[in-house]
């Protein structure tokens, strides 16, 4: 009598398993993406060094010395990147800003004495109000931007309650403070600041990010008076991890270990190859961008809130 083999029945994958598979996949992709990016950056720095030495017409011995110094700096840079920092490594000087999810403090790094702006974000509030995607986008753009038009981020770390972003401190304040001091700006001054704002916005668009909150409060000034964009709390990008739906669909119930949950949510790095569908926002993005800039221009020239409210 012939025996029939039993057909194995496949059980549906649980939400927890599906979630972990997704995280593992994205983590591996990001790991190798970062390795490639770091290698490319090292090669770029090496090429710049070689070009600079050729322009200076250095002798072979001097070139050898420069290459040795460069190699030591690269090693020190890698060591610095591996350093694990915490709140105890910084001394809080004063609070310089408050927001919906936390505050910004002026801090001093204890071992070097360097001054930074520390942005402190409460994890519970971000999760409750579904802001993880925006914070992910903010962290990513601060890392990827070259610093010319965007506030630099030097370190980031977290504890059970908060996420900490250690950024450069810009002594020039923001555009709103400047307007409060001067009341209005001249046409020439307005042209200068708006031109730099357009260049800054274009720079982040080239990286695949959309600010979505352009206003005088978020236009900071460095020590030389040049504009830098800040506060990317409403920022979004073309990566899945920059969309609120990505986190909403992973799970609806945080696990009992809330710290691990936050760590899982906030440390996923999505590779550059994982993009959102093409054409997102499209012409509507440009329209809102122009409206935002028009509001800023009127504000700089007139400092009149009523006029700004007429542009929707």
Automatic annotation (TrEMBL):
Keywords noted in UniProt: ATP-binding, Cytoplasm, Kinase, Magnesium, Metal-binding, Nucleotide-binding, Phosphoprotein, Serine/threonine-protein kinase, Transferase
Keyword Iron-sulfur: no
Xref: Pfam families: Pkinase
Keyword Ribonucleoprotein part of the UniProt annotation: no
Domain spans labelled Protein kinase: 90-312
InterPro entries in UniProt: Kinase-like_dom_sf (IPR011009), Prot_kinase_dom (IPR000719), Protein_kinase_ATP_BS (IPR017441), Ser/Thr_kinase_AS (IPR008271), Ser_Thr_kinase_AGC (IPR050236)
Binding site for ATP: 119
Signal sequence range: none
Compartment(s) of residence: Cytoplasm
Cofactor (UniProt): Mg(2+)
EC annotation from Swiss-Prot or TrEMBL: 2.7.11.1
GO terms under biological process: intracellular signal transduction
Cellular component annotations (GO), alphabetically ordered: cytoplasm
Reaction equations catalysed: L-threonyl-[protein] + ATP = O-phospho-L-threonyl-[protein] + ADP + H(+); L-seryl-[protein] + ATP = O-phospho-L-seryl-[protein] + ADP + H(+)
Family membership noted in the UniProt record: Belongs to the protein kinase superfamily. AGC Ser/Thr protein kinase family.
Protein name: non-specific serine/threonine protein kinase
The species this protein was found in: Thamnophis sirtalis
């Amino acid at each position: 009598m012939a025996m029939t083999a039993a057909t194995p029945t496949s059980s549906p994958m649980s939400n927890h398993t599906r979630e972990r598979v997704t995280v593992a996949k994205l983590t591996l992709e990001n790991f190798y993406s970062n390795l490639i990016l770091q290698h490319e950056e090292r090669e770029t720095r090496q090429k710049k060094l070689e070009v600079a030495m050729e322009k200076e017409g250095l002798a072979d011995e001097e070139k050898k010395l420069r290459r040795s110094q460069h190699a030591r700096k690269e090693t020190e840079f890698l060591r610095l990147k591996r350093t694990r920092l915490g709140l105890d490594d910084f001394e809080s000087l004063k609070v310089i800003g408050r927001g919906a999810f936390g505050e910004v403090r002026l801090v001093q790094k204890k071992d070097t004495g360097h001054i930074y702006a520390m942005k402190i974000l409460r994890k519970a509030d971000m999760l409750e109000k579904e802001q993880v995607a925006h914070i992910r986008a903010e962290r990513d753009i601060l890392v990827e931007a070259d610093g010319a038009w965007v506030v630099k981020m030097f370190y980031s770390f977290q504890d059970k309650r908060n996420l900490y972003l250690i950024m450069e401190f810009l002594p020039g304040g923001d555009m709103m403070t400047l307007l409060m001091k001067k009341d209005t700006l001249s046409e020439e001054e307005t042209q200068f600041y708006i031109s730099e704002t357009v260049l800054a916005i274009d720079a982040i668009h080239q990286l695949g990010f959309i600010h979505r909150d352009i206003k005088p409060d978020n236009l900071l000034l460095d020590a030389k008076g040049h504009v830098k964009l800040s506060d990317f709390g409403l920022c979004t990008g073309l990566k899945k991890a920059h969309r609120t739906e990505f986190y909403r669909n992973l799970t609806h119930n945080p696990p009992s270990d809330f710290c691990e949950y936050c760590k899982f949510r906030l440390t996923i790095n999505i590779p550059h190859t994982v993009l959102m569908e093409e054409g997102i926002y499209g012409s509507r993005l440009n329209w809102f961008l122009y409206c935002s800039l028009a509001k800023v221009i009127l504000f700089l020239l007139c400092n009149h809130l009523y006029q700004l409210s007429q542009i929707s």
